[in-house]
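Lecture 7 notes: from sequence to structure.
We start with the chain below.
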Amino acid sequence: MEVVIVKDAKAGGELIAGAIVDLLARKPDALLGVATGSTPLPIYDALVAQVNAGAVDASKARICQLDEYVGLPAGHPESYRATVLRQVVEPLGLPESQFMGPDGSAEDVQAACDAYDEALAAAGGVDLQILGIGTDGHIGFNEPCSSLASRTRIKTLIEQTRIDNARFFDNDIDQVPHHVITQGIGTILDARHLVLLATGEGKAEAVAQTVEGPVSSLVPASALQLHRHATVVVDEAAASKLKLADYFRHAFDNKPAWQGI
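Predicted structure tokens for the same chain:
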């Protein structure tokens, strides 16, 4: 696992955006898996800035979702589809036809989950998947004790997650869905390159367990240790509990021209 310690969230976003630019230069129609939430926003901002500056042509890039609420009406502004369209697809100037995600409004949700896994495979697989991490080590909506071989499936949101997400629904928890579709850990591990961004002291313990702890379903993100190309980008606060932090800093310092993480 590659671990890169950066100064702050902005630096992490710029670094990862640079890797995406390199990917698109090599493979213009690459399939980029994106996550929602506040953590990856610096990545998207930096990527849009580089595309607008002419660093790369992103017109053929394809985007796919990591997860989606179940039961929200089509076009709901807080659906993850609408969020990704607003934060990534539209700013990059991409047509909606180059964006794919699970159908959270399907009558048969499990069939929709299976169909999404099949669609990802038919698209050639995800080239680079952006991930965040929860304080309990979850990735996507794969909470602790999720199977490390799990595929895209429906999950029930715990009460605390619904409370946390109420801020996106006028602070009304009754509007927050009880269920989500999420790529399973096995599905996530199918991507060719996994890039996890974590910032802030609150993520430090989860990062340490992910990078240096045992592979365990108690820390779902630890499954990244099994991946052939996983990169963890953290700021100093999120790296504060890594025993090998000095080693990781030294390894990065020795690669000033490091790219294509």
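Points to note: The longest helix spans residues 9-26. The radius of gyration is 17 Å.
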